[in-house]
Amino acid sequence: MTTPDFTHFSPLAPAYDDRTDSDDVPIRSARLRRWSETLSLLRGHPGFLLALAFILFVLLAAAMPTLLTRFDPYATVPLEKLRAPSLLHWFGTDELGRDLYTRVVYGAGLSVQAALLAVSIAFIGGSTLGLFSGFFGGRIDAVIMRLIDVMLALPSLLLALVIVTAIGFGTLPVAIAVGFGLLPGFARTMRAEVMRVKTLAYVEAARLGGAGWGRILVNHILPNASGAVVVLATLDFGVAILVASGLSFLGFGAAPPAAEWGTLIANGRKFLITAPWLPLLPGMFVALAVFALNHISRTLEEVSK
Amino acid sequence: MTGTSQEPIIDLTDLSVRYHSGNQIVDAVKQVSLTIAPGEVVAIVGESGSGKSTLANALIGLLSDNAEVRTGTIQVGGEDMTHASEGQWRTLRGRVVGLVPQDPMVSLNPTMRVGRQIGEAVERARGPRGRSLDADVLELLEQVGIDQPVLRARQYPHELSGGMRQRVLIAIAIAGQPELIVADEPTSALDATVQRRILDHLDVLVKGRGISMLIITHDLGVAADRADRVLVMQAGRIVEQGPPASILRAPAEPYTRALIAAAPAFRAPLSQIGAKPVTATLEILRFEAVSKVFALPGEASWFGRGPKPLFQALDQVSFSVHTGQTLAIVGESGSGKTTSLRIALGLDKPTSGRIIFEGRDITGLGWNEFRPLRRRIQLIQQNPFASLDPRYTVFESIVEPLQSFGKYTAAELQARARQLVDQVRLPRLALNRLPRELSGGQRQRVAIARALALGPELLFLDEPVSALDVSIQAQILDLLGDLQRDLGMSYVLVSHDLAVVSAIAHQIVVLRGGRVVEHGAAGQVFGNPQAAYTRELLEAIPGRVA
Question: Which homologous superfamily is B268-296+306-376+460-546 in?
Answer without folding.
Answer: P-loop containing nucleotide triphosphate hydrolases (3.40.50.300)
